[in-house]
Design brief:
Blueprint lengths: L1 E7 L2 E10 L4 E6 L4 E6 L5 H11 L5 H17 L1
Antiparallel strand pairs: 1-2, 2-3, 3-4
Helix pairs in contact: 1-2
Length: 79
């Protein structure tokens, strides 16, 4: 499991990323927002960023949701 920090404005959020290589999936969680998402390697890409942003907007504002979604996409593509 990897733990990253996402800083947006003056807010810092811990992002937990777990990669399950056997099942080719990734689980991402942000406990401070009571938010999590699971997706497969096949889902990686621009569509994933949009899906993450939409679900994050339910728990935070649009600007922060976009920033976090972009960072999660970048971090998971590097794995």
């Amino acid at each position: 499991m990897k733990i990253r920090k996402s800083i947006s404005g003056s807010t810092e959020r811990k992002v937990f990323i777990h990669e399950n290589k056997k099942e080719e999936s990734i689980l991402v969680a942000i406990p401070a927002l009571f938010w999590s998402a699971e997706f497969t390697y096949d889902d990686l890409g621009k569509e994933l960023t949009n899906k993450l942003e939409k679900t994050l907007q339910k728990t935070t504002d649009a600007q922060e949701a976009g920033d976090i979604a972009q960072r999660i996409s970048q971090w998971t593509n590097e794995m």
